[in-house]
Design goal:
The complex is a heterodimer of chains A (192) and B (278).
Chain A: E1 3-8, H1 12-16, E2 23-32, H2 35-46, E3 59-61, E4 66-69, E5 73-77, H3 90-97, E6 101-104, H4 110-119, E7 122-125, H5 131-136, E8 140-145, E9 155-170, H6 177-191
Parallel strand pairs in A: 1-2, 2-3, 3-6, 6-7
Antiparallel strand pairs in A: 2-9, 4-5, 7-9, 8-9
Helix pairs in contact in A: 2-3, 3-4
Chain B: H1 2-9, H2 13-25, H3 29-48, E1 58-65, H4 71-85, E2 112-116, E3 122-129, H5 131-134, E4 138-142, H6 147-162, E5 170-177, H7 180-189, H8 202-216, E6 231-239, E7 246-253, E8 260-264, E9 270-273
Parallel strand pairs in B: 1-2, 5-6
Antiparallel strand pairs in B: 1-3, 3-8, 4-7, 5-7, 8-9
């Protein structure tokens, strides 16, 4: 398997060089956000208030982890959640906060794909349910925000060490593996 | 407590075997990479006694035996304890306020399906159900004239509509007949059956086989990224229904099709299994 090594924060050029189907590993900084964190971040943006963390150039991880407090926070299990739940919020979120990578599972809508192409962002599919593989590649928690949202919905800033393998499933040029597979599935279903 | 730990941290042998079988079927690099990560994750979870998936789900219990009014309270205590000790993710919230009380309990939780029986022992099963797959559950009250073809079409539509989101390759549970609520309950109960088993009823066994082949011909593949393995198995259960009804329900389970069983004897002995009893 010919895999690319990426580091977050990452440049727009590096992201635009990724192509759907590439297999990658990611190191560096990522921030988790699910439904509630998306909602709160967009509310704050609408009110003109700054976020307590920096997303620009970073990887956004659709993940609600299990964490354990020992000497500090430790990641117990942290696979991706279904990205499509964030579809109605993601285009605005991408334009407002400019993350360069989204890590999730299951893919996102054509509207999100379009916003990704506009801002220069790629979607990395991490195997759903691979929570322990992910936890081993996330050795450090460097921050937690909005803990009042509950453990899964809070924003966790994590340091990744070769998280992967992940598939570039939607690239910054409007190509989506999910859409291609869905089209093929519908074609085959029509022949049944 | 032990039942919950086994269910959350160790993938049942039938599911592991089905995933290994899926890997042998796949030739594409992307499909294989998904299954290889899945198998690596299963090994690591068992070794570390860590939950296989961070969505430790909502534990659905099935109890068969003589009713004991202390049962629900005992199961609730086990869930709260498991949440702190394993640990499980606190998933349960109020449906509207979304307030999370942190112990996976609250009104109606955990759900317990009780089947009265005059057996000496008590059979207990748990199915931790993640939301990624549960959110694609569906019920359709078919017109009886739509028949078997209508059932096949509905199940296929459900799998296509769910697409990549329930973490395929999935296990498809089908509840056929009964009332609306009974059909849904049967579709969930079907998920307890071993993969590779066929229904004793010849017509249902045929439906299971046909749908499995048909669904795997769609090309959705592991995690919806394309491939030959869209489902690990199809398991159907039925009940009789009203002459004017044909209810059909679908419950999908993600590849992390977790389940565990315990048999509690009157003398207090307990046997555990991830394959079920008899």
């Amino acid at each position: 398997m010919n895999a690319l090594e990426l580091t977050s924060p990452i440049t727009e050029d590096r992201v635009r060089a990724l192509r759907a189907g590439d297999i990658v590993y990611l190191s560096g900084e990522l921030l988790t956000a699910r439904d509630e964190a998306h909602l709160r971040a967009l509310e704050m943006e609408a009110e003109g208030r700054p976020l307590p963390f920096e997303l620009s150039g970073r990887a956004l991880y659709h993940c609600g982890p299990i964490m354990r407090m020992e000497k500090g926070w430790r990641v117990v299990a942290a696979g991706p959640t279904t990205s499509a739940r964030m579809d109605s919020l993601e285009p605005r979120f991408l334009r407002a906060f400019r993350p360069r990578l989204i890590i999730g599972k299951g893919g996102m809508s054509p509207e999100t794909l379009q916003a990704m192409a506009e801002v220069g962002c790629a979607y990395l599919a991490f195997t759903g349910g691979a929570a322990v593989v992910a936890a081993e590649a996330l050795p450090e928690v460097t921050g937690v925000y909005w803990e009042d949202l509950g453990m899964p919905e809070a924003v966790w800033r994590l340091r990744a060490e070769r998280l992967g393998p992940m598939v570039v499933a939607m690239d910054a040029h409007g190509r989506s593996l999910y859409r291609e597979v869905e089209d093929e599935v519908r074609r085959r279903a029509s022949l049944l | 407590m032990r039942l919950l730990r086994e269910a959350e941290c160790v993938l049942p042998p039938d599911v592991l075997g089905a995933l290994e079988g899926a890997l042998a079927q796949e030739t594409g690099e992307v499909a294989r990479s998904q299954l290889l990560v899945i198998l690596e994750n299963v090994r690591k979870a068992a070794r570390r006694s860590a939950p296989i998936c961070q969505d430790t789900g909502l534990p659905v219990f099935f109890v068969r035996g003589r009713y004991d009014a202390r049962m629900e309270a005992a199961l609730s205590r086990a869930v709260a304890r498991a949440t702190g000790e394993i640990p499980l993710r606190p998933n349960i919230v109020d449906p509207l306020s979304r307030v999370n009380q942190g112990n996976n309990l609250g009104p109606g939780m955990p759900p317990v399906h009780f089947e009265p029986s005059d057996i000496e022992h008590l059979d207990l099963a748990v199915l931790p159900k993640g939301a990624g797959s549960e959110n694609w559950s569906a019920l359709r009250m078919l017109n009886p004239s739509e028949g078997l073809e209508g059932v096949r079409r509905f199940v296929t539509d459900c799998v296509i509509r769910a697409g990549s989101r329930p973490c395929p390759p999935t296990v498809v549970g089908i509840g056929l007949g009964g009332t609306a609520d009974l059909a849904v309950a049967l579709s969930k109960k079907a998920l307890l059956r071993p993969l590779g088993s066929s229904n004793d009823d010849a017509a249902l066994a045929e439906l299971e086989r046909e749908l499995r082949t048909q669904l795997n011909s769609l090309g959705l593949g592991p995690m919806g990224l394309g491939g030959r393995t869209t489902v690990l198995g199809v398991l159907a259960e039925k009940a009789n229904c009203h002459t004017a009804s044909l209810p059909v329900a679908v419950s999908l389970n993600c590849w992390a099709a977790r389940k565990a069983f315990a048999r509690i004897y009157p003398d207090g002995r307990v046997r555990f299994s991830q394959e079920g009893f008899d």
